[in-house]
């Protein structure tokens, strides 16, 4: 056991270094939704859920001693360490022939992880990393009923919920379905006089304990949600949102194929995807690796179906459900069913990005693949010993080739950067002004290409960097949806600055009434912006700070008595 622990820790550390590589050097790694700044914001958006409050305040505490970029390095190391280590430790596959290492390698190195990390979904990936221990203890509980196993299931469920509500809902539905299925089976046996009712009552008791503890511990975010349901972001997720985030694919066959191969993330259709390498671009190599990968997984399915049928049935069923739900409103035979879920189950609107269900499919592939490698290696070892080492190495290479851009710091596509000196200079000026005011940040977009970050499309970092006085765009501009903002004050300013019928001075007067004292402009980015801002032509603007990338304007007519 001691040797296994050392090996697991060592190889998990190696995996972190090989994947992150140059991302470990000093600087910020900025991606679509992963925007770290020197001081992290603890502010929740209007209508947001508070499930992430524990991790936010933990990071906020660390931020008292560590700069944002140091904390990001710690978070990135922890993420990829957990992805590999927890899979090696908890995936229920054989250790012989390193089956658990192959399963962990594929679980951590696949298109789902690749796309989600490029998109900056680090919190969702942490929740995904917790799936192996969650399933391990869930299976252990139903093999051996005990409060210890039940509390372990609850612990990992709660940890999943701290990082991702999407994966939390998946976990709760899985636990609930498992309890209901077990109760139904035992109830049937009881009425057939083949079993006593004692086990049925015992399972019901455990289920009630799990549900009660979950509700009590989760009340810190469930209570605010139910009290303020009318302000929840779920109310903004209508059909247009669901279609904008639908799984990628131009036909039923393409959508299903994308999901089966762990692709289909909605951003694949957007300009964002053009900034990165995709293994599918090398179609011959990718097709061969895909074929070999599925051969290993199918070998595992055949073996487990013959020798571990209950587990095989469970994970085959889970994988099939994951495929159906991951297709979402994308073109597929399951579109109508998924549309019904959106229309009739209130909380299901939160799954506008249904491709997250592919995380469950990736787990099932890792499970069957681990057994596939073990069964294949066992056959070669006993029948073709001279090919054993070569065959084992070849099978380990397959998942690496299948998602090769993850190696070497995501193929060096994500480079650490520093915020420009002009940003720090502007922040110092704004921080020295102790009056009551707000700062308008332009361009007015939730996402745009940062000129100092290789022009990669990134979430607007202004509010996190400069502080709460920043007023910035929260218009996501995806598909046919320009904005889903629930912030009425933000929408009022948006209407002022984008109204071409107003003169610059009229717009300026209205902004002053909204306490706008400064305007910050990213010079290079705004030149390429398709939106126009008439207010910048106002005669009531004075330059306070000007650099190549950033200009800080002061409003001449602003009166601090406002």
Strand content bin: 5-15%
Strand order of the largest sheet: 4-1-5-7-6
Structural class: mainly alpha
**What best-fitting shape do the alpha-carbon axes yield?**
globular
Q: How confident overall, as mean pLDDT?
A: 89
Helix content: 55-70%
Instruction: List the total number of helices.
Output: 24
Number of strands: 7
What can be said about the biggest beta sheet? 5 strands, mixed
Oligomer, anyone?
single chain
User: Could you list the spans in which at least 5 consecutive residues all have pLDDT below 50?
Assistant: none
Number of domains in the coordinates? 3
Give the end-to-end Cα distance, rounded to a whole number of Å.
69 Å
Rg, please? 26 Å
Task: Give a written overview of the molecule.
There is one protein chain. Helices cover 57% and strands 6% of the residues. The longest helix has 27 residues, at 165-191. The chain has 3 domains: 2-129 and 228-411, no CATH class; 130-227; 421-555, Rossmann fold. The protein contains 24 helices and 7 strands. Strand 2 and strand 3 form a beta hairpin. It is mostly helical. The chain has a 5-stranded mixed beta sheet, with helices on both faces. A two-stranded antiparallel ribbon has the order 2-3.
Outline the secondary-structure elements.
Layout (H helix, E strand, L loop, with lengths): L1 H19 L32 H10 L5 H23 L8 H10 L2 H8 L3 H8 L1 H13 L3 H17 L1 H27 L6 H20 L1 H9 L11 H6 L7 H9 L22 H25 L1 H19 L7 H10 L13 H26 L4 H15 L4 H5 L9 H12 L5 E5 L4 E3 L7 E3 L2 H5 L3 E2 L16 H10 L6 H10 L2 E7 H5 L13 E6 L3 E6 L7
Parallel strand pairs: 1-4, 1-5
Antiparallel strand pairs: 2-3, 5-7, 6-7
Helix pairs in contact: 1-3, 3-4, 3-6, 3-7, 4-17, 6-8, 7-8, 8-9, 8-10, 9-10, 14-15, 14-17, 14-18, 15-17, 17-18
